[in-house]
Amino acid sequence: MSVHRFSSFDGARLAWHEMGPVEGRPLLLLHGLFSSAEVNWIKFGTADRLARAGFRVLMLDFRAHGQSEAPTDAKAYPVGVLERDTSAWLDYLAISDFDMAGFSLGARTAAITTAERMLEPGRLALCGMSLAGITDHGAGTRIPDFVQTIDSYGSHKPGTEAYMTQQFLKTNKVDLTAARALLHAVTDTSDTALRAIDVPTHVICGAEDIYLNGARELADAIPGASFAEIPGTHMSSVTKPEFGEALASAFG
């Protein structure tokens, strides 16, 4: 595996990781919130499974995540910054024929860039995310809760959802100022645009994921989309071998 960096649309230095045969079909992977390419795709073998399937696996570390730069100036986080970063990354890679998959925040980003015609993947996989989570993040995701968790960081009691988020932030060494700014930059796409996605789409979700029902709604909303249920919760499903198998099957 190799690690690289590029300058995004505003000069921010972002990291990306590559695994698999260079002649393989490019597969872009976008990780979840407060995670990284390492945690989401590499650590538990998903990237390796896809590389063994013959894909050139390309994994971005979002701004303020992983090995990418984490600027603390709010001006570095305009609304839609993740979508712009992903588009800039693809421009840098200079590839036009590719597939794309995202988990949670990464699924939102993959869906929005596709629905808004910023990117044109050949095939798409949206994992661990719901219909409402893409069209109305204020009501359909826990992003407002995450802002509150950051604002009261250090005060959360063990056993609570906020404490689990706090520990995840700590474990992944997330800069809290950068994370707060990023959360305020999250955008949505319209229900109409989402339902107009016309590329083969696969929706994958854990059987105990809080977004399971909404993920089924997402699959129903996108014309021709398939749905696959895998073991695990929102946090644990990415650690299961079934996650990589489901993606390999979706893109097989």
UniProtKB/TrEMBL annotation:
It comes from the Bacteria. Keywords: Hydrolase. Residues 26-116 form the AB hydrolase-1 domain. GO terms for molecular function: hydrolase activity. This is Alpha/beta hydrolase. It comes from Pacificimonas flava.
